[in-house]
């Protein structure tokens, strides 16, 4: 049973970061060492309980008609349940517990982008939102600084960011079914609108807008500016434009996020930051979403990558 395997992995990894639980404590232990030992013991159970709760709430993968489509279309993508198990257990080994970790995301405004976020909220608690349309980190340096100030003392911060893309049951990329809506429509709407704007420019005939100067649609104006460098790349993708689009957006978002993290890393705490970037793949309401991880770094408070955790997600 897949879930049991994941759980035992989590137990093993959670145990691995709390050796004090299995060694006798001497009366001469410092108060901080005692506090840490009791803390990790309790936290192990808290994380296990929270992951188990997600299992209860998640649709069964066995009945999804999607699996072949998604794995063929987005090689390297993991279903959210697998991703969440792996991320939580990998980070547990690095000292990221449910109580000492602040979750921060930069994901699209779309309610479909909340699925992944909500799962991680169930594990780590409330989320600091850095993102906006298409998933760009519109909160910027100031938002990041405010977020970092909320990381628990001696704690950790998990940042999850990236664009999202729908895939319909028929396998069409860029569209997805939604609850209560008959029309199978665009996902991500912001990204596709920006792509269409860009297509108008690269194909000729478009009227250049200056929406970025309008506060009534500030974020979309920025998305359209930030997608401009990818005009040729998307043109060259031809019929695969909708599949290429999230990867192009990811590259822009990743560049911004790396800059923002480096600029604000000094505000981090003991365990630094875990930075998970990738593409959310939204599926129909009754099936699991997927995530294609493209970066999973452990970053210290000097802004240096001290470990590349990405290979561990494909183990
Ligand atoms: Zn969106």
UniProtKB/TrEMBL annotation:
Signal peptide start and end residues: 1-16
Keywords: Signal
Domain annotation Limiting CO2-inducible protein B/C beta carbonyic anhydrase: ranges: 80-299
The protein, known as: Low-co2 inducible protein
Lineage: Eukaryota, Sar, Stramenopiles, Ochrophyta, Bacillariophyta
């Amino acid at each position: 049973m897949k879930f049991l395997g994941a759980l035992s992995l989590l137990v093993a990894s959670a145990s691995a970061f709390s050796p004090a639980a299995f060694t006798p404590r001497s009366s001469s232990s410092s108060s901080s060492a005692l506090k840490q030992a009791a803390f990790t013991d309790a936290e192990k159970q808290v994380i296990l309980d929270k992951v188990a709760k997600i299992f209860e709430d998640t649709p069964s993968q066995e009945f999804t008609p999607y699996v072949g489509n998604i794995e063929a279309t987005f090689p390297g993508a993991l279903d959210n349940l697998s991703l969440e198990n792996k991320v939580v257990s990998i980070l547990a080994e690095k000292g990221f517990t449910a109580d000492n970790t602040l979750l921060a995301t930069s994901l699209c405004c779309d309610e479909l982008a909340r699925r992944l976020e909500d799962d991680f909220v169930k594990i780590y608690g409330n989320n600091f939102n850095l993102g906006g349309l298409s998933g760009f980190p519109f909160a910027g340096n100031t938002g990041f600084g405010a977020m970092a100030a909320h990381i628990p003392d001696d704690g950790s911060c998990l940042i999850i960011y990236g664009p999202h893309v729908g895939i319909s049951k028929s396998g069409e990329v860029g569209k997805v079914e939604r609850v209560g809506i008959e029309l199978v429509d665009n996902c991500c709407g912001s990204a596709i609108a920006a792509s269409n704007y860009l297509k108008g420019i690269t194909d000729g005939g478009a009227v250049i807008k200056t929406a970025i100067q309008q506060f009534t649609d500030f974020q979309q104006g920025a998305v359209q500016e930030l997608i401009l460098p990818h005009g040729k790349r998307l043109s060259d993708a031809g019929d695969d434009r909708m599949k290429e689009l999230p990867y192009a957006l990811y590259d822009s978002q990743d560049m911004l996020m790396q800059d923002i993290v480096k600029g604000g890393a000094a505000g981090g705490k003991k365990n630094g930051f875990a930075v998970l970037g990738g593409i959310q793949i939204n599926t129909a309401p009754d099936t699991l979403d997927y995530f294609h991880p493209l970066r999973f770094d452990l970053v210290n408070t000097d802004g240096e990558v001290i470990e590349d955790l990405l290979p561990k997600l494909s183990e």
